[in-house]
Amino acid sequence: MTTVLDMRGIQKRFGPVTALDNVDFAVEHGEIHALLGVNGAGKSTLIKILSGLYQADDGQIEIAGQPVSLQSPADAIRAGIASVQQHPELVGDLTGYENIFLGNEARRPGLFRRVEHGAMRAKAQELLKRLPVPIDLDVKVQDLASVEKEIIAVLHALKQENVKVLILDEPTSTLTRVEKEQLFKMMRVLKDVGVAIIYITHRLEEVFEIADRFTVFRGGRNIATMTSEDARQGDVSIPQLMLDDEMGALFPPKATEPAGDVFLSVEGLSLTNAFQDISFEVHKNEIIGFYGLVGSGIDELGKVLFGALRPTAGEIRLKGTPHAFASPADALKAGIFLVPGDRRTEGLVLADDVTFNTTLANHDRASVFGVRRFRQAFRDARDLSGKVDLSPPTLNRPAQAFSGGNQQKIVIAKGLYSQSDIYIFVEPTVGVDVGARATIYRQMRALSKDAAVIVMSSDCDEVFGVADRVTSLYRGRMTQPLSRDITRDEVLSAGLMGTAA
Amino acid sequence: MKILHPRTFILIGLVAVIAVVFQSLTPNYLSLRNLGGMLSAMAISGIVAMGLTFVIVLRKFDLSLAGIASLSAMTLGFALFLYGNLWIAVVACIGVGVICGAINGALVGYGRLPDVVTTIAVGSIAYGMAFVYNGGADFSKNFFSSGIVAMNYTKVLGMKVPILLLLMTAIFTGFLLHMTRYGQAFYAAGENPVATRFSGISVNRMMIAGYALCGALVGLAMLIQISGIGSSRVTAGGQILLPAYTSVYLGAALLGRASIPATIAGSLVMTMLLNGFTLMSVPYYYSDAVVSLVLITAIVLFDPRILIYLKSPRRLVTG
Ligand SMILES: Nc1ncnc2c1ncn2[C@@H]1O[C@H](COP(=O)(O)OP(=O)(O)OP(=O)(O)O)[C@@H](O)[C@H]1O
Ligand SMILES: [Mg+2]
């Protein structure tokens, strides 16, 4: 094995925060190397330095034995580094294939140079053969689901030639099983032709599935590098390495007291092309869970319950009274809060700080006669950031300066601030590390003391682990009524195939 | 709010440099009399700029300012002509601004129309309507008897009325935008309308409120301008667009973000420049060109999208 990438003594600071502290990191030719660590450990920062988006304050980088200086994304591409960032930036009003070839469109030479759409489309289809997932490349990117955007970003990286190192920063956090398997298949093919792959994930089971070796970061330092084989045989606990602490139970105990009054009941709820005939009840002091893949209708169901979309049929009752919400404002007033699935477009005002974001959805609490209570809001935000494990707990930083998982924690804090009767969490722990996930689940359980909580997720273990009663959504229909006596495998197969195994 | 930010020192430095340069060129620049004149000049453009700040915070444009100004001015003259009562005239003049602004906001918000084209259209309609009252001729009847002319030089609380109005507008808009929940909602709605809606805030209502407030302050500025001229004319709003945008963008470039303090700073710097040029008898077409140059520089410095675009054209939308 030869070392294809060798980073030594990498140092990076953002103001007072040391994101990377004297990090050594090396990747071998043709290996899949998982990069692990809690939220804010510095993984994305290292990746951004490698792809020329950030410049290291100190340290050397060698690629295939040659020292390189990566001052810009163009330098990185020239050096053979292809990357998919954690939050890929695409141009919303261009189509899928236009985004894939952005920057090097096929052109006809000559005076009347123009972009050759035909050639681009053909090449894009060829790329799709490497990663066969059903996706319409002629649709504008802004109209695509986040899974599809992720695929576009991956194709964008793959189109590059002479790739020596491919970097994937949490690609599976939004992918569903099918795409994930295609992605893994493609990664193995690339590995076989000698491409080294750096793979970031918070789903630790994936490490043993795909990675040859892994490296754990903690607080901006490289804590350990080992082969997956050694880890398995030596019975190494990855969570313990990441957290530097014994990992407690991921899920809190289920409700012990009987559920209280019915807070929300839904009868025959439908939205054309999304879901049909949904009926259920949720009580105070319980958590219910919906498992469903992307496209199964869970995202839309959450939005309908929150008034962001109008149902085409059916009735929503809150504590017995029927309600028809014209907007999220109505739903909030009635005591419903939605933690939306897409944090960066639906959850956060990225340019503003933590206090601003936390208090935005509950002005009644954050102001008196319209005048903002700055001190009180700051104190509340400080308490909440502690409750969700925000790191660093610096409240006057804009949301966009936080690592991906910590941005999700701000959205959760905003939910906790809202003091609602009914909470709907859609994909609540996307990109959140195991330790913080346990904290968030504990908060949900605490919330359910006075409220009804609904969890909707494409992570079956999450739904099964946190909810008292569960069901799954398959192509817009509930596969069975909410139930306490159902096994994880039944939920899983019902969500994947529509019928309980 | 951090007052002692390094940017504050840059601002103070800039003001000092401008003052020293013009003082050395024209000895009257820092005379009390000229400073008073500067503040009066700043009253009109500053008030308009503070209104425009709300629209810019919403990440929208308002190109109807001039049209609305003409209509407000003529409405003011017509109301004085009919009733001879200053208070009725003030309400009419500001009210027209509110109505035009609310129409802008409704079309851009609920109507989902593009802001630039819509406000150009609303502005030209308003300008056309300004001619309806008197076929384009001036109004000056009842101007002296109603007291509007006296308003320009009367002192209240030791300040000329226009300067007092500038101060009051600054306090009111600054309070609204920076101390209240509505201000927080303006910023949120401009930066991420989807997340704002998901936070229970009606973005469309914020649009109406922002444009209407902008229209109202255009009306107020016209009241001051007309009181200085002594007659209402359809050309009253001809000169307000450029200084307003320059103040907002220059301020945002100086202080890092569009805000009321930033707009006041921008307006101050611009007024100092214009006043200096006037004292040196630079013709207005040259000074306009300089102001435009300042505007473009400010836009490049402030608009992050432009900066990002300059760095790498592909990073526009986040997945
Ligand atoms: N642009 C920035 N400005 C300021 N601080 C930043 C910036 N980007 C990252 N940081 C800080 O650097 C540290 C490392 O962040 P990084 O994004 O690398 O974490 P990560 O390991 O990728 O976490 P996650 O799993 O949540 O994505 C964090 O403390 C973060 O707040
Ligand atoms: Mg990251």
Range of strand content of chain A: 25-35%
Helix content percent band of chain A: 25-40%
Number of strands of chain A: 23
Would you tell me the structural class of the helices and strands of chain B? Answer: mainly alpha
Structural class of chain A: alpha/beta
| Tally of individual helices of chain A | 19
Low-confidence runs of at least 5 consecutive residues of chain A: none
How many E strands of chain B?
3
Reported for the largest beta sheet of chain B, the result is: 2 strands, antiparallel
Q: What is the topology?
A:
The complex is a heterodimer of chains A (501) and B (319).
Chain A: E1 3-14, E2 17-28, E3 32-37, H1 43-50, E4 58-63, E5 66-68, H2 73-78, E6 81-84, E7 89-90, H3 96-100, H4 117-130, H5 146-158, E8 165-169, H6 177-192, E9 196-200, H7 205-210, E10 213-218, E11 221-227, H8 228-233, H9 238-243, E12 262-271, E13 275-283, E14 286-291, H10 298-305, E15 313-318, E16 321-323, H11 328-334, E17 336-339, H12 343-347, H13 354-359, H14 363-366, E18 367-368, E19 371-372, H15 374-387, H16 404-417, E20 422-426, H17 434-447, E21 452-457, H18 460-466, E22 469-474, E23 477-478, H19 488-497
Parallel strand pairs in A: 3-9, 3-10, 6-8, 8-9, 14-21, 14-22, 17-20, 20-21
Antiparallel strand pairs in A: 1-2, 1-4, 4-5, 10-11, 12-13, 12-15, 15-16, 18-19, 22-23
Chain B: H1 6-25, H2 32-57, H3 65-83, H4 86-108, H5 115-130, H6 143-146, H7 148-151, E1 155-156, E2 159-160, H8 161-179, H9 181-191, H10 193-197, H11 203-229, H12 241-255, H13 260-279, H14 284-302, H15 304-311, E3 317-318
Antiparallel strand pairs in B: 1-2
Helix pairs in contact in B: 1-13, 2-8, 2-11, 2-12, 2-13, 3-4, 3-5, 3-11, 4-5, 4-11, 8-9, 9-11, 12-13, 12-14, 13-14
Residues 14, 17, 19, 37, 39-45, 86, 392, 401-406, 431 of chain A line the site of adenosine-5'-triphosphate.
Task: Describe this protein's structure.
The complex is a heterodimer of chains A (501) and B (319). Chain A is an alpha/beta fold and 501 residues long. Chain A contains 19 helices and 23 strands. In chain A, α15 packs across α16. The longest helix of chain A is centred in the middle third of the chain and has 16 residues. The radius of gyration of chain A is 23 Å and the shape is globular. Chain A starts with a strand and ends with a helix. With 319 residues, chain B is an all-alpha fold. A two-stranded antiparallel sheet of chain B has the order 1-2. In chain B, α2 runs parallel beside α8 and α12 runs parallel beside α14. The longest helix of chain B is centred in the last third of the chain and has 27 residues. Chain B starts with 5 loop residues before the first helix and ends with a strand. The chains are: A alpha/beta (501), B mainly alpha (319). Chains A and B meet through β7, α5, α11, α12 and β19 of A and α9, α10 and β3 of B. β7 of chain A pairs antiparallel with β3 of chain B, so a sheet runs across the interface. The structure holds adenosine-5'-triphosphate (ATP) and magnesium ion (MG). The site of magnesium ion has 6 residues of chain A, from α1.
